[in-house]
Amino acid sequence: xxxxxxxxxxxxxxxxxxxxxxxxxxxxxxxxxxxxxxxxxxxxxxxxxxxxxxxxxxxxxxxxxxxxxxxxxxxxxxxxxxxxxxxxxxxxxxxxxxxxxxxxxxxxxxxxxxxxxxxxxxxxxxxxxxxxxxxxxxxxxxxxxxxxxxxxxxxxxxxxxxxxxxxxxxxxxxxxxxxxxxxxxxxxxxxxxxxxxxxxxxxxxxxxxxxxxxxxxxxxxxxxxxxxxxxxxxxxxxxxxxxxxxxxxxxxx
Amino acid sequence: xxxxxxxxxxxxxxxxxxxxxxxxxxxxxxxxxxxxxxxxxxxxxxxxxxxxxxxxxxxxxxxxxxxxxxxxxxxxxxxxxxxxxxxxxxxxxxxxxxxxxxxxxxxxxxxxxxxxxxxxxxxxxxxxxxxxxxxxxxxxxxxxxxxxxxxxxxxxxxxxxxxxxxxxxxxxxxxxxxxxxxxxxxxxxxxxxxxxxxxxxxxxxxxxxxxxxxxxxxxxxxxxxxxxxxxxxxxxxxxxxxxxxxxxxxxxxxxxxxxxxxxxxxxxxxxxxxxxxxxxxxxxxxxxxxxxxxxxxxxxxxxxxxxxxxxxxxxxxxxxxxxxxxxxxxxxxxxxxxxxxxxxxxxxxxxxxxxxxxxxxxxxxxxxxxxxxxxxxxxxxxxxxxxxxxxxxxxxxxxxxxxxxxxxxxxxxxxxxxxxxxxxxxxxxxxxxxxxxxxxxxxxxxxxxxxxxxxxxxxxxxx
Lengths: 253, 463
Ligand SMILES: Nc1ncnc2c1ncn2[C@@H]1O[C@H](COP(=O)(O)OP(=O)(O)OP(=O)(O)O)[C@@H](O)[C@H]1O
Ligand SMILES: [Mg+2]
Fold this sequence. Notes:
Structural class of chain B: alpha/beta
Shape of chain A: globular
Number of helices of chain A: 10
Number of helices of chain B: 11
Number of strands of chain A: 12
Number of domains of chain A: 1
Strand order of the largest sheet of chain B: 2-1-5-8-10-12-14-16-18-20
Strand content of chain B: 35-45%
Strand order of the largest sheet of chain A: 6-9-10-3-11-12
Number of strands of chain B: 20
Structural class of chain A: alpha/beta
Largest sheet of chain A: 6 strands, mixed
CATH topology of chain A: Rossmann fold
Number of domains of chain B: 1
Largest interface: A-B, 31 and 23 residues
Helix content of chain B: 25-40%
Oligomer: heterodimer
Low-confidence stretches of chain A: none
Order of helices and strands of chain A: EEEHEEHEEHHHEHEHEHEEHH
Low-confidence stretches of chain B: 1-20
Mean pLDDT of chain A: 94
Shape of chain B: globular
Bound molecules: adenosine-5'-triphosphate, magnesium ion
Largest sheet of chain B: 10 strands, mixed
């Protein structure tokens, strides 16, 4: 099987400071990987580098996505190829209605894939059922993107975008943080509904609780810019019990 | 004007030089002979005063405080033909540049009314549009009490120049107690081919008691020569009346556009102004609203979208001279290239204007390093029981927002367009009249699309 995503020896710096210090990670189609790790170890940095955000120097290593050099692509091209990042902190965009935004995005993707663009009616039809499943009202959809949304609403809105844009690789950066128990279930159901043999996920979280709902195939521990341990879902339970102290030495090495 | 004889003396002695540095002064006397309505004492006096004011001041220079940020040297250096009429060979309204809206239409070419291109309202439409000369013949008192009274030449050299030289103009009257359904659209076309031309559009609007209506202006150009439009609008909104007044300045890229609107707002009057400036090489729109009665509502909004080397100025003055009135002002600017924007907004609250509620805000978005905005918001308050605020901001596009959009598959140009559109949208939303709002939105979209294709061309030539 050829990997969907293949990260090799990734070194990333911001300014003078090296944040990722040689990350290796391979994700095959259909697999769900979880990344856990203490605050400030580079989890979001990894997700931004995948999505193509500016300001990060890739000093070494490669990222191959669907056989292509991902780092050579613009952010929108990566999205068109099927990378989706659910932001840890979704951005508020005043004046841009949620529906306008999502329709523009969906049609950009469809165009890239050689599919016809959807008109307003077809678009609404496509979105409504998915929004309903995530408890997102029409009124919320029409509002300026994320403006005035509660933390939980923003996270649900991220999952809705993922459901609408149907990526090949979804990177969920702490999509569970800030959610109450009910919302967590709604979001987890939304994510689980998207699982398929063609779709892979990279789930960044601090809490094993989420992984009870979205059961990962692999769990990785990222400490100080390195993956210091990988295992099955039982690794998440072990972390919950023991914390990250055991990896302090490995990280320093 | 307390000017001592010793100061005057040398000026007289240098008449030739003065004329050279004060353009157009040499054409004042010649024009005086041929203007419509000559022989009426009040009008002759007004025009004589206008000539005197202009001779005294000339075009305002950078030492004049109100013109500190807008330098007219480029205009001063341009030589204009004596007569703009021969250049006005226009037999259709150029499509695409004016606002697109169903309306009564009055077309001016180089400041002159063109009946064959116009479709004026008829009796029963609640609004009348008359040519200046016709109004003068039919109802001289209508003009005598307002023309040159709402916007007197004193202290206003450009108003003086217009008053001294205007050969034609429009008088629009909304009839007492009536609301005109359909807007009146004035399309002012500048037409120049070879030699630069100048003209003086003139407008008088009277909204009688409890009447209501909507006026749109599109200022556009045709041909590839330079022209200078120096417009003056006098507006009287009488008691309980309502006027929506929306203007598009979409002049030819080489044009000069200077315009002054003065609005006199009586008790319970409602005046809503919107100005979109996208065109011209050097442009300034001035609005002076005088609140002369209680419980007036005065809303000024606008947007300016600039690129290349454009210089565009919006100067507004709201004079609260009566109590319990509300004024709102929101201008938004988007500047690209090495464009320069100027916003000057002054709110004056006189001693008797208690319970005034006034807010003013100018926000600018700078899309390039070379662009520049000068904002000068001013509050001058002499009453003690008022609620007033003002502010100005300038910033760049939000990188986080841009990346968020891109990360969803939207390319950078489109993402920028969405954000700029959203930014300008806040101003466009101030337009209460729906069909007009749609028409202005289209202009904004056109401007954005033009930018995208320009970026593409630039990208291609780099590749
Ligand atoms: N643009 C930046 N400029 C400076 N430092 C940065 C920048 N981006 C990230 N960092 C630093 O890099 C380190 C890793 O940040 P990152 O956001 O990737 O951590 P994280 O693992 O996602 O943490 P958390 O669990 O708190 O979300 C932090 O110390 C952070 O301060
Ligand atoms: Mg993080």
